[in-house]
DNA sequence: CTGTTAGCGCGTTCAT
DNA sequence: ATGAACGCGCTAACAG
C-alpha cells in the first residue's frame, strides 16, 4: 500500500536508487543501501508487481491448463510445475478447463493479455481452434502427456506410450493371457493410438487375435472403469486380462469385477497406468506403469521458461522414462 | 502485443473512447462502437491487464494456499474455488505451501505486492508469525476447514467437526464397539481438538473409558494411516474400531490391517473422514463423513470477494453441513 | 554510484 | 458523446 516514493522520502534518495537496491543491490553504495533497506522496512514497502510488469512486459507467471483436477496424476505434475516455477520466481495460475474448449480459450487468452508469460497444457485432448492455432504460434507453451498433432509442432514432454503398453502386454502374455479387454479414457487422442498400437503389436507378434469391440470406455474416471468392466463382462467372450488406460479406471474396473463375484487376478488380471499413489494401497495392489509425473512437471517449466527467455530449444520432444510396476492385480491366467 | 493506440488509429478515435467501449459500452455511440470493435478485431487487440491493474489497484486474482496438493479433498475445494473465481472474473494463483511457513509467507506476500487481491487458506495448521498477523489485519482472507485461533478473528468456512465425530462415534457405539483407536492427522490443530472432543463426549455418555495412548498419527497420508494402524495393533488391547481423521489415513490403515490377516469390518471397523471419491471404491467401501468440499470452495470465494468489495460480512463463521456415509467398512463388533 | 527524465499501457477526470 | 491530458508505480536509459 505504501509506494516507492515514500521510501525515497524516508531514505532521501531517488526512485531509481530504490529500484536498483531491490534489483541489483551491488550496484549501489553499501551505506545508502542500508539506509534504503531500513526505509523499506519502516514503510512496510512492497513493490507493486503490476507496475513493474507494465514496464518489463513480464508477468512472471505461468498458466497451467488442466482438463480434470480430480486426477491425482495431473496433480502430481502440477506439484512439480509449482515447485519449479517457484524456484524460478514464477507463480502459477490454475486453469481448470473441464475439457471445455471455451474455458481453455479464455485461459489461453491470459497470455495474450499479459497476465501470464507462458502456457502449460496437461493432456490436451482436442485440437486448437483456428484462432488459438494462430495464438499458439507466438505464445511460449508446452504440452505434457499429449502431443498435439497439427501443422506447428509444439514442444511436448511425454512418455513413450507405445513402448510402455508393449511392456504391459508382454507382461500379460507371459502370464499366458490370450483374451484381452481395454478400457480407454479417450479414443480420439494420440495417446490412445500409441497405446493401442503398442498392445496390438505385441498381440500380433504372439499370434493373438484382438477384436476392436473389446475396446470400451471414454473417460478417465472410476465410473467409466466400472461401466467399462461391466460391458466387457457382459460380452460373449470374457477377457482374462484388462488394460485400463489409467489407475482410476482400473480402480473402478476392479470394483465392478469384484461385485460380479470374480477375483482379481485369479479370474481376471487388471493393469492400470500412471502409478498414482493410492494404487499401491488397493486390494489387490495395482500393476501399472509409473510415469515420473513430478519430473514431467519440472521439465515442462524448464521448457516454457526457455521459450520465454528466447533460448533456443534443445529439442522439441522430450521422452521421459516409464517403469513397469508389477503388483498383485495381474497374475497367471487360470486354466 | 498490439496496444490500445493501434486500435485508436484504426478506428480514428481517442484512447478514452476505446477504453470506454470496453468497460461501459453503452456510454459510447453505437456507430463508433461498432467501428471500434471492428478495429479491435482487426488489430487482434487484447487489453493489457497489468496496465489496467496499475490504475485500478485490483489484480482480479486470488491466492489459494494449500498445504498438500495430493489430498483429493483439498482438490475438490480448489475446484469449487476455481469455478466461483472464474464466474466472478477472477483467476486463481496456486500456492503449494508444503506446510512450510516460509513458503506460506512468500505467497501471502503476493497480496501485499498487488499480485492478488485476496487470500484463501486451506487447512492452515500453524499460527501466523507476528509479521503475518499484522498482514492479516488488512488483507481480505478466509480460512477453509480450520479456524485460526488468534486475537483477530478471520472468517472461516468449516464443518462442525465436533458434531460430525459425535455422529461417527454414536454410529460405532451403536454397533457395540467399546475399544477405540484414533489415527489423527495433526495433534495441535483446532480440528484435532474438536474431533477428539466429539468422540470423547460420546464415549463419556456411554460410560466407555478411553486412553489417550490410543491416539496416534500426525500426518494426513496413506503412510501415516498404515503406520498408525501398525502401532495400534501392536498395543496391549487391540481396538475393535478405529477413527481415521481422513480417508487417506483410513485407506492406509485398512491396507495395514489386511496385511495382518485381519478383516474389515469383521475384526476391526474403520471409519474415515471427508468422503473423497475413491472411498466408495475401496474394499470394503469406507464409512466416512461427507464434507461438501466443492461448496466450501465456492463459499470461500464469496467471502473473500465480499471483503475485497468492502461489503460488510454477514457472518464471520460459516458452518457447512456434514453427512455421515455409512458403508461397509464399519459393522457390528464381533463377539 | 546516483539523480533526472521518459515512458510502459491504460483509466479517468476535465473540457468541449 | 468524445478528446486531451495527466498519472498509476515502477524501470531503464542517459547524464553527471
From TrEMBL, chains A, B:
<keyword id="KW-0805">Transcription regulation</keyword>
<keyword id="KW-0804">Transcription</keyword>
<dbReference type="Pfam" id="PF00356">
    <property type="entry name" value="LacI"/>
</dbReference>
<protein>
    <submittedName>
        <fullName>LacI family transcriptional regulator</fullName>
    </submittedName>
</protein>
<dbReference type="InterPro" id="IPR028082">
    <property type="entry name" value="Peripla_BP_I"/>
</dbReference>
<dbReference type="InterPro" id="IPR000843">
    <property type="entry name" value="HTH_LacI"/>
</dbReference>
<dbReference type="InterPro" id="IPR010982">
    <property type="entry name" value="Lambda_DNA-bd_dom_sf"/>
</dbReference>
<keyword id="KW-0238">DNA-binding</keyword>
<dbReference type="GO" id="GO:0000976">
    <property type="term" value="F:transcription cis-regulatory region binding"/>
</dbReference>
<dbReference type="InterPro" id="IPR046335">
    <property type="entry name" value="LacI/GalR-like_sensor"/>
</dbReference>
<dbReference type="GO" id="GO:0003700">
    <property type="term" value="F:DNA-binding transcription factor activity"/>
</dbReference>
<dbReference type="Pfam" id="PF13377">
    <property type="entry name" value="Peripla_BP_3"/>
</dbReference>
<feature type="domain" description="HTH lacI-type">
    <location>
        <begin position="2"/>
        <end position="56"/>
    </location>
</feature>
